[in-house]
From TrEMBL:
Coiled-coil regions listed in the entry: 5-32
Keywords: Coiled coil
Residue span(s) of domain HTH cro/C1-type: 19-50
TM segment ranges: none
Native species: Desulfosudis oleivorans (strain DSM 6200 / JCM 39069 / Hxd3) (Desulfococcus oleovorans)
Name recorded for this polypeptide: Transcriptional regulator, XRE family
Source organism superkingdom: Bacteria
Length: 104
């Protein structure tokens, strides 16, 4: 359990760091970005630090502001192997006819 908590903490810190980098790339202050999210600057600062108390809705809203909303759509999607994905896309598989049915 301790190891899982460390993994979660590490992931949240990386997400916070990426959020900070994206905000800085847009040349926006914490106060401005927090306002766009409907948060106080202090709450937003905790988000950038990877606080586990940050609501998932705030992360999704930040993704929307940054044009990354599509990244959230498949987060808990069912895993599908490539063959199943291909068959689903192309419909039923078609096989070649037998030699008996072909003229020589």
């Amino acid at each position: 359990m301790f190891n899982k908590n460390m993994e979660i903490e590490s992931l949240l810190k990386r997400l916070g760091q990426r959020l900070k980098e994206a905000r800085l790339a847009r040349n926006e202050s914490q106060a401005l970005f927090a306002e766009r999210l409907g948060l106080t600057r202090q709450s937003y600062s905790r988000m950038e630090k990877g606080s586990p108390q940050t609501l998932i809705g705030n992360w999704i809203a930040a993704g929307s502001i940054l044009g990354r909303l599509d990244d959230w759509k498949d987060i808990f999607a069912e895993n599908e192997d490539l063959f199943a994905k291909y068959e689903k896309k192309s419909g039923k598989r078609q096989r070649a006819g037998t030699r008996r049915n072909q003229r020589k």
